[in-house]
């Protein structure tokens, strides 16, 4: 994909040309400004993967990242917070709906394999009883 983007940029004409020359000082200044954002993401991932915090605490650390955007960078305004929370909640809800469905599919697949193995061995497959049926 990187190669395709490079070739497209080479053939793209004037819209992809540099309007300002590369400046190492500006690049370092931009990196310095980005350190708090990178640091928050690194802290959340390292703490979660390292077993230092639980997933709930990692979520609280990620919520602190909102404060970095709010106070350090000034990009996030107080009036933007309800929309940010709404988008993140809807995204989390969609992920949480997919996870149990995938787990149920895997369980069903394992049960089918076990049933096929039991039938191949000549044993009947035990039918689980469902309460209320």
Global Rg: 26 Å
- Approximately what portion of the residues adopt beta-strand conformation? under 5%
What proportion of the residues is helical, as a percent range?
Answer: over 70%
Distance from first to last alpha carbon: 54 Å
Query: Helix count, per DSSP?
Result: 4
Structure description:
- The chain is mainly alpha-helical.
- The protein has four helices and no strands.
- The chain starts with a helix and ends in a 12-residue tail after the last helix.
- Helix 2 runs antiparallel to helix 3 (55-73).
- The longest helix has 41 residues, at 81-121.
- It is 72% helix and 0% strand.
- The chain has helices at residues 2-11, 24-49, 55-73, 81-121.
- Among the domains are: 34-76, no CATH class; 78-119.
How is the topology of this model organized?
Layout: H1 2-11, H2 24-49, H3 55-73, H4 81-121
